[in-house]
Amino acid sequence: MKDTLIYLSSSPYQSTAAKEALDLALVLGTFEQPVSLCVTGDALAILSDGQAPSQRHGKHLFKLLDGLEFYDIENVYVRDSEISQLSSPLWSGVQALSDEQWHTMLQQPAAIYRF
């Protein structure tokens, strides 16, 4: 089986990209495909419990994160340097990587889907 990395960098409520990325991860997990997520930039908002999406924005995406374990999605990566710049705590399931580890991680998967 080939590993897949889903790379989230866009704001979760500016478009449907973040929701589509999570949907793709869940579909891959459903079919027992190894999948990891990495979250950076504006997409870090998805990992914050302090989200307050309006009805127009759609689902509260933070609530989907606790279900990742049921799909065997255990690797959710963030850059250590970006965590220190945030004011709110992040979801507890993230793994912080140094810049060197981040670049190494990006070279490992067979496929990367960027949203």
Beta-strand percentage range? 15-25%
Helix content: 25-40%
Mean pLDDT: 88
The H-level CATH homologous superfamily, spelled out, is DsrEFH-like
Could you outline the blueprint of secondary structure elements for this entry?
Blueprint: E1 4-8, H1 17-30, E2 35-39, H2 62-65, E3 76-79, H3 80-83, E4 95-97, H4 99-106, E5 111-114
Parallel strand pairs: 1-2, 1-5, 2-3, 3-4
Task: Write a short abstract of this structure.
The protein has 115 residues and is α/β, with parallel strands linked by helices. It is built from 4 helices and 5 strands. It has a single domain (4-114), classed as DsrEFH-like (Hypothetical Protein Ychn, Chain: A).
